[in-house]
Design goal:
- By secondary structure, this protein is of the alpha+beta class.
- It contains eight helices and seven strands; from the N terminus they run αβααββααβαβαβαβ.
- It has a seven-stranded mixed beta sheet.
- Strand 2 and strand 3 form a beta hairpin.
- Helix 1 packs antiparallel against helix 5, helix 2 packs across helix 3 and helix 4 packs across helix 5.
- It is globular and about 45 Å long.
């Protein structure tokens, strides 16, 4: 008889937040850069000059939510589905995220990225949003699932949580610009390294990050939950800022 899979350390930490002995980490999906997905990009006729700005302009929030859901639907559809509920949760949690947007001069959203530094007390807020969206029982179950994807950065690391680029705007440097912005923020804050996670089978993205100076740190398996998330393993990569 096969042995039952033990709860991972992140799941144990999540459970501990519900009882007197508390610890926490952020519930976030981290598969960076749908710009470098295995599917071929659809070229945009012309990409005008774009700017990077903190947050998401109010008029672009619906587009940002749709873009994020389209990029990560396979991973999110079980933990956060159905789509309307998933986007409701994402809308509630946006205020707790560090976000940078790529905006074309006509106001169109071309891409968005989320990033974070070490925040030991962020899980309680995420659980609040999950409970508000799905109810306490369902919210706790979904939180346990999502905790299997989250690995907290250390105090001297900045983590790229996600990058989503409009399908028609890919291969125009949007993803590079978003990554460059996050690297600049990490440098300003005195971080020693920028880290990200990429699905092992996404070889195209892995090659891109390698060219940008990111190096493999370790592999992480989701084990028996691979049918839930749609992948088996991810690679933690890091870019040193101290060289």
């Amino acid at each position: 008889m096969a042995k039952a899979k033990r709860l991972s350390f992140p799941a144990i930490r999540l459970l501990m937040t519900l009882f007197p002995l508390r610890t926490a980490h952020n519930i976030v999906v981290k598969n960076v850069d749908n710009e470098m997905s295995s599917s071929p990009p659809s070229p945009l006729a012309k990409i005008e000059n774009f700017t990077l700005q903190d947050g998401v302009p109010p008029d672009n929030i619906p587009s940002a939510l749709q873009l994020f859901w389209q990029a990560f639907e396979r991973k999110l559809k079980i933990p956060l589905g159905p789509p309307e509920k998933g986007q409701e949760f994402l809308r509630h949690s946006m205020g707790d995220r560090s976000i940078v947007s790529a905006i074309r001069k006509d106001g169109k959203l071309l891409g968005v990225a989320t990033y974070k530094s070490y925040r030991p007390n962020s899980l309680t807020q995420d659980l609040k949003h999950l409970f508000a969206t799905y109810g306490k029982v369902s919210g706790l179950f979904r939180g346990l699932l999502l905790s299997q994807l989250d690995q907290q950065p250390t105090t001297d690391e900045m983590m790229v949580e996600s990058i989503c680029v409009d399908e028609k705007a890919r291969s125009h440097g949007i993803g590079h610009a978003l990554l460059g912005y996050i690297k600049e923020q990490a440098t300003r804050q005195g971080m020693k390294r920028v880290i990200l996670d990429v699905i092992t089978k996404n070889e195209r993205a892995h090659r891109l990050y390698s060219r940008l100076g990111y190096r493999d740190i370790r592999h992480h398996s989701v084990g028996l939950l691979s049918p839930v998330f749609g992948f088996k393993e991810s690679i933690r990569m890091g870019l040193s800022l101290t060289q």
